[in-house]
Amino acid sequence: MLRTIAALTAALLCLAFATAPPSLAAPPKPAAAATVPNPTLRCQVIGNNTGVSGGIGTGSCGTYYADSAYLLDFGVEGLVIGNYYWTAPDTSQIVRKTCWTNPHCDIVVPATRYEQTITVKFQAIDEDLQWHYFSISAYLPEVCGTRLC
User: Fold this and answer.
1) Closest by CA position to 136, among listed 77, 57, 83
2) Over the stretch 121-144, which tens digit does the pLDDT of each residue have?
3) Confidence band (pLDDT; 50, 70, 90) for 111?
4) What is the three-class DSSP state of 93?
5) Which domains does the chain have, with CATH numbers?
6) How many separate helices (H) and strands (E) can be counted in the chain?
């Protein structure tokens, strides 16, 4: 009888360790970390007085049309995260900038006798609180009066 109880106890112990109750089972694997899709940064240089666009560019943009000032229109697509942060340069040639916590940033820059490159930086934070950084540049021609130099 003792042998039978010992054999049954051993069998029960083997069975217990072979199939642990759900509370003791290994926890489920965590879901893969959220990934930020590769956003598309676009910009457009528009003559502030003429309304003529140099076309929409991806990564950078510019124009070959003379104007006394330019509207630089920056935007990001393909990012569904709600926290956007734009940083535009605070230089003397920038007349007005409207860069809010949204996917668009507009800057008005007067034309000069020198070529200009205006680079804005864009930051986004994902669901995992990880920062992602991007930049985009607009190129402006040198303008002499009402014509390109």
Assistant:
1) 57
2) 888 776 677 777 888 999 999 999
3) very high
4) coil
5) 40-148 (2.60.40)
6) 1, 11
